[in-house]
Amino acid sequence: MRARKRSVYRKKKKEKRKRKKENHTKNTHQSLAKFPKPGGQKREISADTPSTISVSNFRTNRRTSFIVHGYSVDNEDIGQIIQICGLLLQMEDLNCIIVNWEDTAAKLYTQAVQNIRIVGAELAYLLDYFEKSCGYSPSNVHIIGHSLGAHAGGEAGRRKQGINRITGLDPAGPLFHDTSAEVRLDPSDAKFVDVIHTNIGRLLFEFATGIIQPCGHFDFYPNGGKIMPGCKEKYLVPKQGDFDEVMRDFASSKAAECSHKRSLQYYSASIFIPDGFLGYRCDAFDSFLSGKCFPCPKEGCPMMGHHADTSPDKTKEIHQVFYLVTAASPPFACWRKRVSIILLGFQNVRGDIIIALAGTNEFRREYLIATGFLYPSRSYGTFLDVNVPGNITAVEFQWRKHPAWQRIGYIGAEQITLVNGKDAHRSVFCGSSTVPPEIWQKLTPC
């Protein structure tokens, strides 16, 4: 019996040495960041060297966020991850840990896919150390992973049960499409899994690297999930080479990766502008655009990004799909509204209806509402995704004559109604005058 125990002990010790050697070879590092101000402190930690944790900023009375990068990272990627960490620390006193596997993520894509198993195992090992040595529960942990990093987070969750939340930022698609839940991010990997899809498609047909199918409890597909506004995607024709060469070409093309990396920027922006990223549950993006899923239900719409876990129905069912529209440039936030206009005048004209909206901060934007023949007393409307923060306090109307329209005409807006997607709140503005083309008419609250 004693000999058997010694044999089991030696076997476990040998396996531990082998795992430590293997992990050291794979060059996975965890950096515990604390950025009270720009250029703040950052320490490397390891469960194999407990002293690195004891002298670090890690505190058991804080929640912990791990951020895991993806394939073939560059300085821009690392900068965005550090930015997310810094913003989280501005919002909350937490432990922010950056998981750096840069050395092996830069190798062949097929090898990087294999390496995420080791990254996930290392992360699970660290969480196990936290729990056993520090009494720190995985229910305090949130893993944020981009691309392959999302699946690495899933691997950690599969190995270490009880993780509170995993956020996948455009999880990688190549070699993960239509695979079983055991090898990719899945709702079973944490108590709550939310995903932002920004570059879905097949690599060889659409040259996109995001996974198509839902992977979480909440799956957000901003702008339909394929090409993001402001990204001029460069579709590269794959060379007559192997799969790794195709992936290397993609990773080296900033134009091709714009949408894939936009998920990082959306998450950053959502930290301090949560209501600017409301997701509407809908069966398809076209249905969302047509207004079939407007407004939010009485229980509200979930917020894409950092605050997704505040939704009361977050774990009611898996693979809940949500759509939204973002702006083309930072901070990307938009607020969906239904706009309806009743025209005032005595004759029909041909042209465009334009309105200008301004918020409490005097931020002003113009939007096209309708085009074609315009008739007095008729109502014209559409759905807008307005990148004007705050309440709408000022509304203006203008019409622009079609080049082929020769008659002189005067029309105006008798009434403009705005309905908020968030809560169905109605704001009504009224006017009593008509204007010639390209002259602004100011309306006032009714």
TrEMBL record:
Q: Which reaction does it catalyse?
A: a triacylglycerol + H2O = a diacylglycerol + a fatty acid + H(+)
Residues of the active site are S147 (nucleophile), D170 (charge relay system), H260 (charge relay system)
Record keywords: Calcium, Disulfide bond, Lipid degradation, Lipid metabolism, Metal-binding, Secreted
Write out the biased-composition intervals (Basic residues): 1-27
A single Gene Ontology CC annotation of this entry is: extracellular space
Enzyme class name:
hydrolase
Set out the biological process GO terms recorded for this chain's protein: lipid catabolic process
One GO MF term: lipoprotein lipase activity
**Highest taxon, organism lineage:** Eukaryota
Respond yes or no to whether keyword Disulfide bond is given for this record: yes
Specify whether Transcription is a keyword of the entry: no
Domain Lipase per the UniProt entry, residue ranges: 14-332
Localization of this protein: Secreted
Q: What Pfam families does the record tag this protein with?
A: Lipase
Which parts of the sequence are annotated with region: Disordered?
1-47
SUPFAM superfamilies listed in its UniProt record: alpha/beta-Hydrolases, Lipase/lipooxygenase domain (PLAT/LH2 domain)
Sites binding Ca(2+) sit at R184, D186, D189
List its EC numbers.
Answer: 3.1.1.3
What's this protein's family per the entry? Belongs to the AB hydrolase superfamily. Lipase family.
**Name this polypeptide is given:** Triacylglycerol lipase
- Native organism: Phrynocephalus forsythii
